Amino acid sequence: MNICETKFAQLITPQPRDNEWARRNGLADRFVVMHSGNVGLSQNLEVLIAAADRLRSKERLTIAIVGDGAKRERLQQLVAERRIDTVRFLPYQPKELLHDSFAAADAFVVSLKAGLEGFIVPSKLYGILAAGRAYVAATDPSCEPATIAVRDGCGLVAAPGDPDSLAAAIATLHDDPHATRVMGERARRAAFQYDRRVAVRAYRDLFAQLAGVRGAAA
Q1: pLDDT, tens digit, for every residue of 88-98?
Q2: Helices 177-191 and 163-175: crossing angle, nearest 10°?
C-alpha cells in the first residue's frame, strides 16, 4: 500500500464528466479512455496505440494520453504513421486541474510491462479510484491494479502486452456505459480502503501486534 499516493488521491474527488477542462480539450462529447501520468518505458503504451488501431470502428472513442516522458515522441510517431485519429496527447496537468482532468475520462488504462510487478507501483491507480472511474488493468494478474479490479468489481483485466486483449476490454467499457459507471461507483468505494489515515492505522496496528508478540516471546 503506497501511503504517499493515498495522500495524493485525497486531492481528487468524483466530478461531473462534462466540465470546462473536457470542453476546452474537445472531450466532452466523447467516450474517453485515459492514461494519465508518466509516458515512459515501463508503461508499454505502444500496446495502447495498437489497441486504438483495432478500435477505429468506435466512432465516439477517444484515447487520451495525458502526461510526458521518454516514450511520448515515439508514441506520437506511431499514431501519425498509422493515421489513428482517435488518440490525443495532452500535457501534464497541474494539481489544481486534476479534479477536472480525471473527471473528463469515462475510464482509464493502467498499464505495466509483464514481469515488473514488485519493482514499480502503478501509482495513478489510487487517484483513479478516488475519482470514481472504471479502469482496465493491463498488468500481470497478480499485480495490485488487477487484483483490486477483480476483487472490488471496479475494472477489467487485460493481458499485459496483448493489444487484442486490451482492445476487447476497452470495447466492453465503451459498449456498456451503464456498467462502466457502476464500476466507477465501486471504484470510489474501494478508494476509502486506501485513505492515508486507514493505511497509517493499519501499519500502527501491525507494529503493535508485532511488538506484543515479541514482548510475549521475551
Answers
A1: 999 999 888 88
A2: 100
